[in-house]
Design a protein that fits this description.
heterodimer; A: 327 residues; mainly alpha; Na+/H+ antiporter like fold; B: 101 residues; alpha+beta; Alpha-Beta Plaits; 4-stranded antiparallel β-sheet; two-stranded antiparallel sheet; 6 strands; 40% strand
Chain lengths: 327, 101
Amino acid sequence: MDIDLILQNMLNPPVLFFFLGMLAVFFKSELSIPQPLPKLFSLYLLIAIGLHGGYELSKSGFDWYIFKALMLAVFMSILVPIYSFFILKRKIDTYNAIAIAATFGSISAVTFITGMTYLQTIGVEYGGFMVAAMTLMESPAIVIGLVFAALFATDAKNAENGEKTDWKEILREAFLNPSVFLLVGALIIGILTGQKGWTSMEPLFGALFKGFLAFFLLDMGLVAARKIHELKKVGFFLIAFAIIMPVVNASVAAGLGFFFELSKGDAFLLALLSASASYIAVPAAMRLSVPQANPGIYLPLSLAVTFPFNISLGIPLYYFIINSLWG
Amino acid sequence: MKNMKKVELIIESVYLNRLLKIFKKHEISGYTVIKDIEGYGGHGFKTADDVSDICSNIYVFSVCEANKYTDMDKDIRNFLDMYGGKCILSDVMLLLGKPKK
């Protein structure tokens, strides 16, 4: 792999801010971002990519190519948790296998955004509709997790306590969680308002985008570094899983993207989405549906291993795989 | 003055709705919720500035008549058994405005 690809990604200011956040924790600096702000940054990023994706979609329209890419995205988000579960189940208990499989089956919006800024840096084009692909990939893993929980996790404790699975509550979490709701809403607003709407919003949601991403990644660096000590309890197998599995998922997605003739940029984003793991929507849904699974395992794996790996080495590695295939 | 029970719970924030369902079932008409609390316990130091609210804790307290708590006791124990957390109970006196002459 070309060292330039890694450097181009690592020398991106938002990515460097992520590592600055991690260093702050390692060097015991008192650096912190006041609590409500990271939530505001997260909302800002979701609105920005939703609006921009909607605007791009309003320009390009909806055709067979877009339909194909969206279907591939849904297919990957169903496939990844299924094979992940059966790999994990050979080594760990069913509850944790379900939660980790679902976590890795879903996506991380910030990883996607970092990948988008990488493509912009190296001047590779991609379709705005990939934001819709990202939105579609959030929830299927939660549903797969629920199905696995119903099939494989018969829980004596639940029965004793007379607790029944509240499907309504969990499905609401899967499809109407704040990230999905805001993304879909912003995407629709972007489609409805088109060029005029985007021009009026661009000063806030376009020009300032990288700055807000840097702020958010600084906070993510602080949070990820604080979770690193929890990895001691996780064990070698799962840490290796959290690094190898994203590469496998990205390779499968890249192969499918190549077979179905996606463009280089779109296939890269599909591969990156397939490689990323959720740390907000799915862990919340798993905490509700599989409380026996330990969040001290699936959350640090996603936040402190897969996320830093993806935004540092994963992005150039997946681009290298795509580049080798497309030539 | 009225003799009452004070029920204080520290639970994971994702389970708040499930706890409130128990309160509703037993007609607990008032409660206070404090979000984003920090502290040290069996799971180490829990901060309030997590990127998501999954691991953050929440503090819920209510003051109710003792017999209402007795009815609710089994459900609260089941809740703690299932989802973890701590419940602190204490006998308190509730001051109801100025005493009548």
